[in-house]
Design a protein that fits this description.
about 140 residues, alpha+beta, 6-stranded antiparallel beta sheet, two-stranded antiparallel ribbon, 8 strands, about 20% helix, globular, disordered N terminus
Length: about 140
Amino acid sequence: MVEEAEAECKSAEPNDRLFRRVLKRPDFFKVVDPLTGAKRPQPAALSYSDGDVDGLSTYVERLLIEFGIPSEKLCSDWEKHAVVRFSVRIVQNGGATVVITPDHSDPIIGKAHASIPKPNNWKEIRLKIIQNCEYFESDPKCS
């Protein structure tokens, strides 16, 4: 098991996958396959907000598993939220970093928290994430 102090302030690994919790709002997603109903996030779902003090807030799938945190805990209300999953490699290939930043104010999933400090080319990186992510309206069951 990873020690919390060990995880703090380290970079995520290229093979790690990240989850980003997003509201289920019509302007955040669009249906890309009318037959299956598959959805893709829109740029608004992966935008920085004033609350993202350290960067875009995400959760590292590997740390959820290592700390024994059920992935259902990514959202406290799956009726209002969904998650997108994407590879750290996409962010790093765009020249940005993903920093493990435990959120001590969240005792449930805070140990698996990571931030993406806003790079100058975020729009290009975000487009690659949108093109290559997975969307989950309910528990992705990774742990």
